[in-house]
Write a structure and sequence with these properties.
eight-stranded mixed β-sheet; 26 helices; alpha/beta; 861 residues; five-stranded mixed β-sheet; disordered C terminus
Length: 861
């Protein structure tokens, strides 16, 4: 278990510095736990860095069910503070624990955490009384990396509204909105967010509301409470998300006048990225990126649109990263592959700007000659559409239901008109060049020549290529960019590939173009497709809403302002009623119900012969028990079969033979059972102590317990229960228990029993008619059993006691008389049972409930 916990945590056992032990404080328990710790954690450690151990029980005592969580709290605080409390009263070490040999040391005084050059790690053990053991590994969190969060006076504030269920989230949102409109009207929004986000329980379900003003926050909370969409609102997430984030970069078409303008003023990370790109951008394009964004200039011409889009995508990437969102994979769509190459690390920002500036400048030569259109056609239909026209090509495989075609403007207009006549989507893409079409062949030689000296590096983040004809890791050299411009974009294939490992797709662009295509492609998979900005919307508010949406399992990180924080009203209780609702059962006639459909019985079937094994030649057997004459005869017969007599201290097989004659001496049956149990447990202790040096198998023999024909078997019957305990607790010494026929000489049963000695069994066996039988569950057979409605499980048992066995069937107790092999009252009880079987029910008016003998004899067993 200890090794498994380390494996699940992804750490080597020797990297754990301290273990908060369960610490039973007993002479037997502590050595067992210490050996386990030494075996799992003590190996491979330097002599001067043993595993530190301690137990909080020396500080606060044994807290029963709270002991485990108390140790967890202690270990957590020790990891957090870098100081381990002392294990008190450690004056006399347990002599049975070789601490130095096991690589352990008890922390007997307050100790600073060892300096190891790695995060502090501790483990906690908790062992339950019922056999449930738990072990977990804790690790010091990484040093806080400043995420460049907004200052306290940031124009956008996020409220995290959490609850155990979405319904509780809605109730809390409603109560908070009412308080903000009433008693909390004077409390600043940032202070409210401080308390809600950092001083309220973080439950499993949460929603967020991003707002610039108090009015927006209240409106968002009320929308959340009503289950409606609203500005800045992200509803509670349901479903299990796949880990992993994919940044997706779209091509041309997402641009709009004023994009990023608000971010430039509100978000330092975005502004810093623009400032960093500005010199190289001006050198490559001849105009100012920052001026275009700050002034909200409209973009005209491919040679201005494409470089600005790439630069804005790079700045938006820096913004996402400043809030802790990092990509695990990257997809670029057409032009977007330039941004993808830079973000992956394969190209520097300067090289990326050079590629897009060269690409767009060459494409400007073709402006006005081509067009592109998004069509509501699946790939096969799109390919069929262009198959008969050489001037049209499929430019983008967008999704299973959408494709993009390219060609001359007139041809594209004609296709759109035809498709709209079929009531299908057909719309122009905001470009004046037919990329991914033979039309661009004219500029490819110049593109290869101008980028011939490009020296890409290795990508540190996987890029899933969308360029047709390219597989594996993209090279991002001159030939690659020629293929990127000329060949079709296989976007749906790239998304399908990414969805096998990742579940969150973030389109990093000024306006979402690809979220529909992503949703359509992986509609069968739980995922999240999240944009970054929205055309003509508040950039900062939109971004923070989408940032909140990207947190699907844990709430977003928000500023934690200095104390004090203002008190807020408690989250309202959501009352749940737990009354058991009972519905009247339909009237049913149980007089002919047969419980054999529901119950089974135990049958004794021959033990399979394929389990037979040959006893070792010359094995020693010790025979012990109260019946000395029987024991002597058993030893003699075993000697005739090749076994030799041994003692319990050294024999290979030890056989305890319970007496088959009535118990002699004073005392009750219970006293006799205690004596027998004590003899057996003493024997178990002896065999367990010597097992490592002299292994042994223990067998117990009883006589006639199965039938229980007379009182002499009662003391032996306790061994059946004890046998199950021995088999579970000490399986290494257990052979089995065999119940022999009563009053039968050993000559009749020993030959069969001798063959079983080398075949351990967990279940009780019986030997009858010369064969060994094992129990199994089989359907009830024989005559149908009628249910006794007088013994209804719903109405309770009648005042008298019915002499017989009962089974619960459809809410009724089905009764059958108890018939031991020899029963003087058998005839009388059979008559009573016959009466029940014929529909006469005890206590139903046919008998006097005041007479305990009216419905049959009282059960005396």
């Amino acid at each position: 278990m200890l090794r498994a916990a380390c494996a699940d945590a992804g750490v080597e056992p020797r990297e754990v510095d301290y273990v908060e032990a369960h610490g039973t404080g007993t002479l037997l328990g502590d050595p067992i736990e210490a050996r386990g710790l030494g075996s799992a954690y003590g190996r491979g450690r330097a002599p001067n860095s043993p595993l530190l151990i301690g137990s909080v029980k020396t500080n606060v005592g044994h807290l029963e069910a709270a002991a485990g969580v108390t140790g967890f709290i202690k270990a957590t605080l020790a990891v957090h503070r870098g100081r381990i409390p002392a294990n008190l009263h450690f004056d006399s070490p347990n002599p049975h624990i070789p601490f130095e040999e096991l690589g352990l040391r008890v922390v007997n005084e307050p100790t600073n955490w060892p300096s190891t050059g790695r995060p502090r790690r501790a483990a906690v053990s908790s062992f339950g009384f019922g056999g449930t053991n738990a072990h977990l590994v804790l690790e010091q969190p990484p040093a806080a990396i400043s995420p460049r969060l907004r200052p306290a006076d940031s124009p956008v504030t996020s409220l995290v509204v959490a609850g155990k269920t979405a319904q509780r989230v809605a109730r809390w949102a409603s109560a908070l909105a009412d308080w903000m409109d009433g008693a909390g009207a004077v409390v600043p929004l940032a202070d409210i967010a401080h308390t809600v986000n950092h001083h309220r329980c973080r439950q499993g379900s949460f929603a967020t509301v991003a707002a610039r003003t108090r009015e927006q926050a209240v409106a968002g909370l009320r929308a959340l409470a009503a289950g409606q969409s609203g500005l800045g609102v992200v509803e509670p997430h349901g479903g299990r998300c796949s880990p992993g984030v994919v940044f997706v970069y779209s091509g041309q078409g997402s641009q709009w006048a004023g994009m990023g303008q608000q971010l430039l003023a509100d978000e330092p990370a975005f502004a810093a990225a623009i400032d960093e790109l500005e010199p190289e951008f001006v050198a490559q394009t001849g105009f100012s990126l920052k001026q275009v964004i700050a002034d909200g200039e409209p973009l005209v011409g491919v040679d201005r649109i494409q470089p600005v889009l790439v630069a804005v995508q790079l700045a938006l990437t820096a913004l996402w990263r400043s809030y802790g969102i990092q990509p695990d994979a990257i997809i670029g769509h057409s032009l977007g592959e330039v941004t993808a190459a830079v973000v992956s690390g394969a190209l520097s920002p300067a090289d990326g700007l050079r590629v897009v500036a060269t690409r767009s400048r060459l494409l400007a030569r073709l402006s006005g000659q081509g067009a592109m259109a998004l069509l509501e056609l699946d790939p096969q239909a799109a390919e069929h559409l262009v198959a008969g026209d050489k001037e049209l090509t499929v430019a983008v495989y967008a999704s299973p239901r959408q494709s993009v075609i390219a060609g001359p403007p007139a041809k594209i207009d004609s296709v759109i008109t035809e498709l709209q006549g079929m009531d299908r989507l057909g719309q122009l893409v905001d470009v004046d060049v037919a990329s991914h079409h033979p039309m661009v062949d004219a500029v490819l030689p110049d593109l290869r020549a101008e980028l011939a000296d490009l020296m890409p590096g290795f990508a540190t983040i996987p890029v899933i290529t969308t360029t047709s004809g390219r597989q594996g890791t993209p090279t991002f050299d001159a030939d690659y960019w020629a293929d990127n411009l000329r060949n079709p974009v296989r976007f749906t294939q790239a998304v399908t590939d990414a969805a096998q490992r990742h579940g969150i797709f973030i389109e990093v662009s000024p306006h979402p173009l690809l979220t529909y295509a992503i949703d359509d492609t992986i509609s069968h998979t739980h995922h999240h497709s999240i944009p970054t900005l929205q055309r003509d919307a508040d950039d900062t508010l939109t971004f923070h809403t989408n940032l909140n949406a990207s947190h699907t399992t844990h709430p977003p990180q928000t500023p934690h302002l200095p104390e004090p924080h203002p008190p807020l009203p408690s989250a309202p209780w959501l009352h749940t009623y737990h009354w058991i609702s009972t519905k009247p059962r339909p009237s049913q006639d149980h007089s002919h119900a047969d419980p054999r459909r529901f119950v089974h019985r135990i049958a004794w079937s021959p033990r399979p012969a394929d389990e037979l094994s040959v006893p070792p030649a010359g094995a020693s057997v010790a025979v012990v028990g109260p019946a000395k004459d029987t024991n002597a005869r058993v030893r003699e017969l075993l000697g005739e079969r090749g076994y030799h007599a041994g003692r319990p201290t050294d024999a290979r097989y030890v056989m305890y033979v319970a007496g088959d004659e009535p118990m002699v001496g004073s005392g009750s049956d219970c006293d006799a059972a205690v004596r027998i149990s004590d003899e057996v447990t003493t024997l178990v202790r002896q065999l367990t102590d010597r097992h490592d040096q002299h292994p042994a198998r223990m067998w117990i023999l009883t006589h006639g317990v199965l039938e229980g024909v007379d009182s002499s078997v009662l003391p032996q019957s306790c061994l059946w229960g004890l046998a199950s305990v021995i088999a579970a607790e000490e399986p290494q010494i257990w052979g089995g228990l065999v119940d022999l026929p009563a009053a039968v000489d050993p000559e009749e049963w020993l030959p069969v029993l001798a063959e079983q000695l080398s075949r351990p069994t967990k279940s009780v066996l019986v030997l009858r008619d010369g064969e060994v039988r094992a129990p199994e569950l089989v359907p009830v057979d024989g005559q149908p059993v009628s249910p006794c409605s007088a013994m209804s499980a719903r109405r309770g048992l009648p005042h008298h006691r019915w002499s017989g066995r009962a089974r619960l069937v459809d809410g009724e107790l089905a009764c059958r008389p108890w018939r031991p092999p020899t029963d003087p009252g058998r005839t009388h009880r059979s008559a009573a049972a016959s009466a029940v079987g014929n529909g006469h029910r005890p206590g139903d008016g046919r008998s006097d409930r005041g007479d305990p003998h009216a419905g049959g004899p009282r059960c005396g067993r």
